[in-house]
Every structure is written in structure tokens, then in C-alpha cells.
Design brief:
The structure is a homotrimer. Chain A is 15% helix and 24% strand. Chain A is α/β, with parallel strands linked by helices. At the A-B interface, strand 2, helix 3, strand 36, helix 4 and helix 5 of A face strand 19, strand 20, strand 34, strand 35 and helix 4 of B.
């Protein structure tokens, strides 16, 4: 579960490993007997059935191996060595990186589904004469492609996407339904943009305008753009604002989950990954290969070095100059216990003074 | 205010109570004189005028009773007993549950508005030949219904909804404008889905791919789906991701407010209600009848039992095995006072040691 | 960078200052020589080239003045006095408010771009017969305008906007692509609404319905509307819910960033500005001229006076009766240091008792 391919379309196990293994992982079938099983899908150890392949990458799930009904299981050599000779009936696929091999298999099965989607430009799409649409591009129903847009070969837009004047989408991108690019936004190759993504809305910039009324604001028009590198994925309803004067920049291989907010002029380094609901305020620079937990917040105008891990919910309010993990959410508690402790939080400075007094008296 | 019905369409008070009271609540008009007033709408105690009905459910508002200009007020017997004999001129509707009665009345007036909306399939909607659309279904302008979709009797889709391949929508659902279902998403009966809702975007899953580049990520295609039970409501711009291998599951009667993020493989038990801006990380299981305050966050792979209340803004970072209320947000303060206390928070461990030293010396 | 106008469209510096300075700021060119340069765009001190104008408003950037290649720089008289006589080659524009002058210039250049957008009603828009569309209104492709809608002179709707029954949009508004108004929403003049904005979705209101099942909820239909004043800007994917019985009200000149959630019956006073990801729970009233940092949260039914500043990430859980700055996020730390301190947070009440014991013994 889920079984994805009809039995007459399913490859044999060796065929599957060959076609899916696009990065050349080491991969060896053990305990194999002819005829090889056909594999219709991929599942977890407990859910996979006799026409599916599974994998063990989390050591905590080792005990599930004996219970698995999968046709074959991907595991490391060292895990395989722990199995009794008369062990689980499933075939074993020995691989140094079972989790990566599973990723490749899941991609292969999903590509089958994608290849069956409708192709070509839907007649209800509204496309400006000056837009340059490369070959093998699909444009879904009710899309709007404005003047001067360029879309690279093999890219695929779901229904109701809007691509603003002068924006550029690279090759082999996948825009799901209802993605919006404002004008002058650039997206690299192989991007995956999910429904509700908004690239290039105005950054939040205002100057006080006392000439109008005390407290009134004058809008600072946002003249910069947004640039996404290659291999970027952006989750549903995430927004990335355009820069004030220069661009907001997202590096290669960056992965952003849903409902993230990236403000104007932020820079995010290559391969950084952010879980959902993160907010990054204006002009902050985040390094490469950082991992950011869900609902973390970043103040504006900060600089974070490469290889920083930020725990979920943490508010980052100053620069981080050293790689490492940073945390800031204090533990929750039963409400009554919390009430007792919360009252003390607002007295901490006073408490410290009382300790100092005691120390002097001592 | 708001007056909802024209006077010639307004029912008399007894008629209204009869048609709106679909659950058979006890309900008795006191102080009634013929002819009965016609009721054109429902309002709060202070805003309702002489053609509207109001209610008292919050004891704090008791003093407003004497000031109300409403034609009739719903209240409990015990509240009615407190009123002077020559008390407020409005009629009294005695009911054991005034708040529920108000809910039923508001539903009845709103249904009038909904019944006047356009029906049928709009000619600009793009509907695949293999989609199965039941009778009495409305599909708004610019909707896109893909192959193999099934939509149950009496359901109503606002403009610009997208329903992906193979997804299923039950009976009597209400999808407001611009709701998006990816492929293989299942929605039960009587769902209400608000604008910007995205069901079935990819969960956030990646495996390290050192074969490509240090720090690079390989996408884990998300092969599971999303399943919503019956009577679920989902607020504007809320996103519920599809599962990695199995489904993300939302129980019957679950109510989700706006801008909530439910990650892949989360399970939410029946009748649990979440206020806005909550984030739930992957594979976490939340029990039945829980109430979750706004902007609460849940780490991944947790298990929470039934009947848990989480206060707004609280970060839940470990399992909860016992019903009850849990809280974790420490109190805000005037900025200077906060500065003094915040400095101490980072010295708490050291402070405890100083107390220990003093205790030993004592 | 970005150069915005072709050289044959660029005004001379004095012309530009005259046409852009719509509020009558004091503004004087110093060190001017004929012929005056033509200005094609605006840039930061370091990025602006010899056909662009720049500005200095942040004293920290003073050192960049000497390095700027801009044609002209806007600065205050006192900053200009610090420059050596043979100082930077760029022309100096003396102005008491360089940041506001920059805002006006950026607006002027952006208006050029907007004036080139397509005008008129796109043939794919679906517009009800009873809608009243004023003169000089643009309606983008695939918009849906329902019955009884009114749109004021000079307003411009991007592609795929949906305006529900009876809603009203004022004059000179700019709705970017894919903005949704439910029924009976009112928007004042000169509003700017970004992609994904949802005005008027149902507030989150339910009454316990034990008649159905223990824990079940009955929906409270939301009969109020949403009212936005004049000069309001709302960022991408922000949601403002309709009121339960009365309206949710946003004052004149209010500026809301992206992904903000305003719940039912909230009132926000004139000129208040909120950074991204803020959540305001139901019926809370926020005063005029407040500034709210990103990801701040507000509990429901609170009252905040005018001129309150709330720091980013702060949870406001009680009324604020005095103007001033309020903060509540405790500082993050290196993960190990955090672990040591976090353990003490749950013992604070106990710690205080131990100090009391020591004090008595002393």
C-alpha cells in the first residue's frame, strides 16, 4: 500500500534497481531465486505487501523486519548480517545507503504517474504573444503567461498558474496548480513549486510620511526581483518577496517547506533546508547547508554562517558566527506548573539580586 | 445589524424556532403576545434591532440585557429568573443552550444566502471526461476537474477550484473559491473548505545525496494521499500535505482554522479543533476532542492522547500521555523589564549552582 | 542596478525631483553643473551606477558615500556638511528627509512600469450582469466578479481575482493576481492587495453540540463582513476573516505584511503596521499607530491602546493600557547551554522557595 503500477507494467526487482538507481549506488540482491518478483510499488516495512519493496534505514524499526511481508527489503550489509539465516522470507537488497535508494525508487514510481499527465498547452491558457515557450512545455488550463516571459524546455505548469511580465522559468521545472510569479522573477532549472507559492510580491517597506498625517506611511515601491537557483523546491503557500532595490536570492538546491515567509533582500545559501512556518525578516543572510526547524523566526539584517542548525520555534535575534546547533524554545508544562514558573520569569532579575545579597552576607 | 432577510421573507418567531431547531433543543417563548414578530436576522445584544433575535450565553454580558432592542432574546431559565417582571421589553426564548440555539439560527439565515447562489456547472469550468459528477452539484467558473475525480451529490465548488486526478469529494460539501486538491485526496461528506486551502501537496522529505554534492538533497517523492473524514472544516490558506508512503488522516468533525500547516503522515482524531497558525510536524498523532490554541507548534513523531488542551503559542516537543491543559509561552513585559529578566534566563543553570553553594554553606 | 528606464525616456535630475516630489519636500541640488544628468533609475549607494540616483538615510552607511558611483545622492544638510569639498564626484541633493524622498522616487519609477500594463476587461473574465464596474477599471484574465459587486474608478485587478456577491472595491485600488474577496466585503480607496489575500472567509466559531456526539461542534455561521479603510496594503497570503455578527474592521492607512492572520471581529486602528506572520485572535482591538514585529501573536478579546510597539515573536496575552514597547521572546543560545538553562526553567518556582528559605535562615 500504495500499489502504484498495474501488474503488467511492473518491472522485475533487478530491472527496477537498474532503472531507478540513477546515481550509481552500490546495490546487490541477496537470497535471490528465479523467477525474480515483479515490483508494483514501495511501502513501509509494515505496510508493504508481497508485490512491493521496502527499506530499513531507521535502526529503531529493526524489529519490524521479521514482520514485513514485502517482496524485498533494502538494508545495509551490517543490518543484513544480524538476520538469522532462515530469517524473513523477503529478498534482501544490500545497499550502503538504504534511505537514498528508497528516495530514488519513490522518484521512479512517481515519475510514472507524472508521465501520464496531460501534455501541451491547454486552449484556455492566456499566453502573451511575446512569451517564449520552449519545446516540450506543458501549460495547464486557465494559466496566464504575460509579456516577455520565457519558459525552458520540459517545464510543466499545472492549472491556473500566473507568470508575470518578464519572468523566466528554467528547464524541467514543475509548477503545481496555482503558482504565482510576479514580474521579473527568475527560477532556475528543475524547480518544484507547490500550489499557492507567491514569488515576487512587494517587500514590506514604508517611510514615515508626516506630510500626510501623523503616523502615516509612504510606500517604498519594491524595484528589485527574486532569483531562485537550480534544484529549488518551495512548499505550498510559501511566499518570497521581491527586493527593495536588489534581488532576493535563493541558492541552488535550497528546500523550503510550506507556509514559509522570506522577506525582501534575504539571501539563502545553497542546500539549506527549512521546515514549515519559518519566517525570515528583511536582508538577513543565511549560510549554506543550514537546517532550520519549523516555525523558527529570524530578525532582519542578520548574518548566519554556513552549517548552522536552528531548532524548531527558535527566534534568532542576533548574528551566528559559528557553525553548530542553536535553540531557544523553553519547555512546556502542565498548565498549573507553568503558572507557578511563569510568575517567576518576570522576577528573574530580582531573584539574582537576592542571591547576590545572600552571597555577600555569607 | 446585519439584517439579512427582506421583511416579506422573514418568518415569525415561532416559525423561525421551528425550522432552525434541527437538533430538537428545548425552546419556549415567554411573554409572548399575538401577533408574533417577524424575525429578519440575528444580532448581538447591543446591535440587534427590533426585527432581530439575540441571545445571552456569556454571563459577563448580562448587563446588556436591559439595553437590548432585539425583538427576542434566547436565554436560560435561570437567567430569565433574574429579570424583573417589568424587565426588558423583548420577548424571551427560554432554552437550556442559548449558544447552540444561536448557532442553529445563524446557520439557518446563512443557508438562505447560499440557496440564492448560482447553481450548475459554469461553462468555463474544465472537466475531464472521466470525472463523475453527481446530481445537484455546482461547479464555479474557471474550475478544473481532472481525470477520474468523483464529486458527491449536492456538493458546491466556488470559482477557480482545482481537483486533481483521482480525488474524491463527498456529498454536500462546500468548497469556497480557489481550493486546490492534488491527486488522490479524499474528502468526506459535508466538508467546508475555505479559499486557498491546499490538500495533498508533497510532504517535506529529502535524503542526503552526497553523490551529487556535499550537503545536497534527493527528493523523496510523496506517494501517500490525504484523507479527510466527514464534517471537517478547513480555514483559508491552510495546507495539509500528502503522506510519504501512507496517508495523512484527518478525523470526523475536525475543525481547522486559517493558515494551519499539517505535515505528512499526521493523524488528527475526531472533533479536535485547532485555532489559526498552528503547525504540526510530520507523523505526529493528536488525539480526539483536543483543543489547540493559535500558533501552537508540534514537533514530529509525537503521540498525544485524547482530550488534551494546548494553550496558544505553546511548543509541544514531547509526547503527552495524560489529558489536561499544557502551556509553554512565558509572559511578555515592558521592554526594559524584559531586558533585565532576559539576561538572567541565560544564566539560570549558573544561578541554581549558586543557590546550591549557599545551601551547603548554610 | 536595476536600471528601469530606457535612456530616451529618462528625465533629467531636476525634472525627476519635480515630478516625483508629490508631497512638496524641500529639495535642493548642490554642486550642479550643466548639462544635468538623466536619471534612469534608483539604487543603493554601492549598487547605483552613473545613470542612477541614490540616497543616504542610515548613518551607518556614511562610509559608502565616498565609494558610490551614483549620478546623484540624496542626503541631509548636516551629512552634506561632513563631506570634503573635493568629496565624492556625485551630485548632492539636499533634503531634510532622504528616506521619504527615496520612497517618492521609487514610486515614480514603479508607476512607469504599472502604466505599461494591459488595460481594460479581459474577455475571459466572468462578470455578473448586476456588477457595477466604473470607468478606467482593468480586470485581468480569468477574474470572476459576482452579482452586485461595485468597483471604483481607476482600480486594477490582476489575473484570476474573485470578488464575491455584493462586495465593494473603492477607487484606484491595485489587486494583484489571485486575490479573493468573499461576499459583502468592503475595501476603501487606493488599497493594494497582494496575491493570495483572502478577505472575508468564515471566522472560527463553533458551539458544542452534544446532541450529535460528545465533543462534536455546531458551526456558527459568520454573518458579519470585513471593512478595510482607505490606503490599506495587505501582503501575500494574508487572511482577514469576516465577523460573526458584526464586521472585522481595518482602519485607514493600515499596512499588513505577508501571511498575517486577522481573526473575526478584530479592529485595527489607523496607520498600524504589522510585519509578517502575525496572528491576531478574535475580537481583539489594536490601537492606532502601533507597530507589530514579525510572528507576534495576540490572544483574543484584548484591548491595546494607541502607539504600542510589540517586538517580534512576542505573545500578547493581556490588555496593554499604556503606550510603549513590549517584548516576550527569551534569547536563544548554543544548544548545550540552552539545555542546561531550560532544565532550570521548569524549576523556577522551587528555586524561588529555596532562596526564601536561605533568606529566612540568614
Amino acid at each position: 500500500m500504495p500499489v502504484l503500477l498495474a501488474s503488467d507494467q511492473a518491472p522485475t526487482l533487478p530491472e527496477l534497481l537498474r532503472v531507478a538507481n540513477t546515481v550509481g549506488l552500490d546495490c546487490k540482491i541477496v537470497g535471490a531465486t528465479e523467477p525474480m518478483p515483479c515490483i508494483q510499488g514501495v511501502g513501509s516495512l509494515l505496510s508493504a505487501g508481497p508485490v512491493e519493496i521496502s527499506f530499513l534505514s531507521n535502526p529503531k524499526l529493526h524489529a519490524q523486519l521479521a514482520l514485513s511481508k514485502a517482496a524485498a527489503v533494502i538494508l545495509t550489509e551490517s543490518v543484513a548480517a544480524t538476520l538469522p539465516a532462515n530469517g524473513p522470507p523477503c529478498l534482501r537488497v544490500i545497499c550502503s545507503q538504504p534511505y537514498l535508494m528508497y528516495a530514488l525508487l519513490a522518484q521512479w514510481f512517481d515519475r510514472h504517474r507524472i508521465d501520464q499527465l496531460a501534455c501541451g498547452v491547454h486552449p484556455t491558457a492566456v499566453i502573451a504573444d511575446t512569451a517564449l515557450i520552449a519545446e516540450h512545455v506543458s501549460i495547464g488550463a486557465h494559466c496566464v503567461i504575460e509579456a516577455g516571459v520565457r519558459i525552458g524546455c520540459g517545464s510543466r505548469l499545472g492549472p491556473a498558474c500566473v507568470v508575470g511580465t518578464g519572468s523566466v522559468i528554467g528547464r524541467d521545472c514543475l509548477l503545481h496548480a496555482r503558482v504565482t510569479l510576479y514580474h521579473d522573477v527568475t527560477v532556475g532549472d528543475r524547480a518544484i513549486l507547490h500550489t499557492g507559492v507567491v514569488l515576487g510580491a512587494d517587500g514590506f517597506g514604508f517611510a514615515p510620511d508626516p506630510y500626510k498625517e501623523p503616523g502615516a506611511w509612504a510606500k517604498i515601491a519594491q524595484l528589485g526581483g527574486v532569483r531562485l537557483g537550480d534544484d529549488v523546491e518551495v512548499g505550498a503557500n510559501t511566499t518570497i518577496d521581491r527586493g527593495a532595490l536588489e534581488d532576493t536570492v535563493i541558492g541552488n538546491g535550497v528546500k523550503l517547506d510550506n507556509q514559509i515567509m522570506i522577506a525582501h533582500n534575504v539571501h539563502i545559501g545553497d542546500h539549506t533546508a527549512m521546515a514549515a512556518c519559518v519566517g525570515v525578516a528583511g536582508s538577513t543572510q543565511i549560510g549554506r547547508r543550514c537546517t532550520i526547524g519549523g516555525a523558527a523566526m529570524f530578525a532582519g539584517h542578520l548574518v548566519l554562517v554556513d552549517d548552522v542548525q536552528v531548532s524548531g520555534g527558535t527566534a534568532i535575534t542576533s548574528n551566528i558566527n559559528e557553525a553548530g546547533q542553536y535553540t531557544g524554545v523553553y519547555p512546556f508544562a502542565d498548565h498549573r506548573q507553568w503558572q507557578r514558573n511563569a510568575a517567576v520569569v518576570s522576577q528573574l532579575a530580582q531573584l539574582r539580586r537576592r542571591i547576590q545579597t545572600l552571597e555577600k552576607a555569607d
